[in-house]
Automatic annotation (TrEMBL):
<dbReference type="GO" id="GO:0055074">
    <property type="term" value="P:calcium ion homeostasis"/>
</dbReference>
<feature type="domain" description="EF-hand">
    <location>
        <begin position="101"/>
        <end position="136"/>
    </location>
</feature>
<keyword id="KW-0106">Calcium</keyword>
<keyword id="KW-0460">Magnesium</keyword>
<keyword id="KW-0677">Repeat</keyword>
<protein>
    <recommendedName>
        <fullName>EF-hand domain-containing protein</fullName>
    </recommendedName>
</protein>
<dbReference type="InterPro" id="IPR051433">
    <property type="entry name" value="CIBP"/>
</dbReference>
<dbReference type="GO" id="GO:0005509">
    <property type="term" value="F:calcium ion binding"/>
</dbReference>
<dbReference type="InterPro" id="IPR011992">
    <property type="entry name" value="EF-hand-dom_pair"/>
</dbReference>
<dbReference type="GO" id="GO:0000287">
    <property type="term" value="F:magnesium ion binding"/>
</dbReference>
<feature type="domain" description="EF-hand">
    <location>
        <begin position="60"/>
        <end position="95"/>
    </location>
</feature>
<keyword id="KW-0479">Metal-binding</keyword>
<dbReference type="Pfam" id="PF13499">
    <property type="entry name" value="EF-hand_7"/>
</dbReference>
<dbReference type="InterPro" id="IPR002048">
    <property type="entry name" value="EF_hand_dom"/>
</dbReference>
Length: 144
C-alpha cells in the first residue's frame, strides 16, 4: 500500500476490458460477468486468477467446456435456447448479420446439436458437438 491509498481488491469491468488479452474479444463483458462473484463483471483477485486459469492452454477440456457453456448461456437456465444463440451469433459477428441470416444459423445449430429434439442445447449436447471441434481447443484460451 502506498501512502493512504487502499490496496485494490477488485478490478472493474472497464479496467479489465482494456487488457490486451480481452480487448478484441466479442464476449469480454459476458466473460467478466460469468467469472465475477458479483455477476456484474467486476473481478476480485481470485476471480481474475480463475478466469486466466480457465483460459490457459493447460486448463482441462472439461473445465473449458463448462465455462464456455456458461458464457453462452446468457439467461442462466442451463440451456442454450433461441435467445442465447441469437446473442452469441450477434456477438461473434459484431451484429453485422440480418435477422434472416441469424435465424438461418440458429436453425443449423439446433439441427446439428439438439439430440433430444427440444429446440435447445443442454450441456451434454454442447459437450458432444464442441469437444469434436479442434478449433475449440485451439481458440478457447488467452495468451498471457
Amino acid at each position: 500500500m502506498q501512502g493512504n491509498r487502499p490496496a485494490i481488491t477488485t478490478l472493474t469491468f472497464e479496467e479489465v476490458e482494456k487488457m490486451p488479452e480481452l480487448k478484441e474479444n466479442p464476449f469480454k463483458r459476458r466473460i467478466c460477468e460469468v467469472f465475477s462473484e458479483d455477476g456484474r463483471g467486476n473481478l476480485s483477485f481470485d476471480d481474475f486468477l480463475d478466469m486466466f486459469s480457465v483460459f490457459s492452454e493447460m486448463a482441462p477440456l472439461q473445465l473449458k467446456l463448462k465455462y464456455a457453456f456458461r458464457i453462452y448461456d446468457y439467461d442462466g437456465d442451463e440451456l442454450l435456447g433461441h435467445d442465447d444463440l441469437s446473442k452469441m451469433i450477434r456477438s461473434l459477428t459484431r451484429d453485422e448479420l440480418s435477422d434472416v441470416e441469424v435465424e438461418f444459423i440458429i436453425e443449423r445449430i439446433i439441427e446439428e446439436a439438439d439430440l433430444d429434439g427440444d429446440s435447445s442445447i443442454n450441456f451434454a449436447e454442447f459437450e458432444h458437438v464442441v469437444s469434436r471441434s479442434p478449433d475449440f481447443i485451439r481458440t478457447f484460451h488467452i495468451r498471457i
